[in-house]
Write a structure and sequence with these properties.
The chain contains twelve helices and eight strands. The protein is α/β, with parallel strands linked by helices. The protein has one domain (5-249): Alpha-Beta Barrel (TIM Barrel). Helix 2 (26-35) packs parallel to helix 3 (51-63). The longest helix has 16 residues, at 192-207.
Length: 254
Amino acid sequence: MRKSKVLARIRAGETVKACCLGHYIPGFVALVARAGYDCIWLDLEHRTITTREVQAILSYCHIYDIDCMVRPPTREKAALYRYLEDGATGLMIPHVNTVEEAKALAQAVKFPPIGDRGLDNAGLDSDFNANPDNQAYAKSANSETFLMLQIETPTAVENCEGIAAIEGVDILFVGPGDLGLRLQQAGDEDGSELEAAHVKVAAAAKEHGKAWGCPAWGADTIAHRESQGGRFLANFGDFGAIKTGVLESIKEFS
């Protein structure tokens, strides 16, 4: 099985450099891999591309040796681990609020003895049964794929210590958009409660030997999150790049 760059960096105490993709742009995979990114966050929660296009993107990621973390639009068990069979290195699950949800997700996407993922050993992840030893395949899959759970609500922040303690949960990821929206509506006018949530998640991850991360726009923010122990940081995406490019290019006409 292909070795995960995300997990290798985390195990070495290094920062994972991640970027987001939400559309079918094969060339994007090559460009960010050559630039030195470790992982593409393929967003299927807020974007829609076909199953065959997802499989193609995952194949390109294997060709250019970059991890692909899929954020799926479902929690259906077989659908989740099918992304892994098709070559995804990790799964990012949005809006995980409780310990019970975290346990169910770990059960769905990890093989025994950790979880209860269904066995195939005939997909891109196993190089189409390159090694027919199912025990070796399951052990490698548990070791080289990751489960990231998003902390995006006040309830999730309250439960983050219990979520971090679950075997099979590898990374916690603070979602400042959803979490910030909810905290602002509850009166967090200066963002201090959102920052406190980052601190609490960081502490929970450290206590249980797990990694944590978040979006981090700009060098100063990256440095700040790294100082807090953040190891999975995303600072770029196709939509933002297109928007910035459009706003800059239109200036040439004035």
